[in-house]
Amino acid sequence: MKTHPPKYARRFLRWFCREDFIDEIEGDLLEIYAQQHKETPRRANWVFIWQVLLHFRPDFIKSFSNYPLIYPGMLKHNFVVTLRHFTRNKTSFLINLIGLSTGLACTLLIYMWVQDEVNMDKFHQKDDRLYVIMHNLEMAQVMTEDYTTYELAATLKEEMPEVEYAVATNDFFNWNNKYGIITAGDNQLEIKGLHAGKDFFNVFSYPLIQGSGDQVLADKNGVAISQSLATKLFGTDKDIVGESIEWQHIGYDGVFQVTGIFEDPPAKSTLQFDILFHLDLLDDNDPHAREWNGDYVKTYVVLKEGSDLAQFNAKIKNLVQEKFPQNEHSRLFAQGYSDRYLYGQYENGAVIGGRIAYVRLFSIIALFILLIACVNFMNLSTAKASVKMKEIGVKKTIGASRGNLISQFIGESMLLSVLSMLVALLLVQILLPQFNSIAGKQIHFEWDKPLVLSILAISIVTGLVAGSYPAFYLSSFDSSLILKGKFGMSFGEGWIRKGLVVLQFTLSILFVVGLLVIHQQIQFTQTQNMGYSRDNIISFKWKGDLYDQSYQIAAGKSNEQFQTFMQRLKELPGIVNTTNMAGSILDEIYSQSGSSFFIEAEVDPNTVFQSPLVGYNFIETLGMEILAGRAFSVEQGDDYSKIILNESAAKLLNLEDPIGKRMGWNAGNEVIGLVKDFHYGSLHHDIEPLFFRFEPMGDHIMAKLSSNNIPATIARIQQLHEEFLPGNNFTFSFMDEDYQALYEAENKVATLSTYFAGLAIIISCLGLFGLAAFTAERRKKEIGIRKILGSSVLGIVQMLTRDFTKTVLTAILIALPISYFIVTQWLANFSHSIELSAWIFLLPALLVLLIAWGTVGLQTIKAAYINPVLCLKEE
Amino acid sequence: MKPPSLGEFEELVLLTVAAQHDEAYGVSIKESLEKQLDKTINISAIHVALKRMSEKGFVDARFGGITQDRGGRRKKFYVITAFGKQMLDRQYEIRSSLYHRIPNISFG
Question: Which domains does chain B have, with CATH numbers?
Answer without folding.
Answer: 8-100 (1.10.10.10)
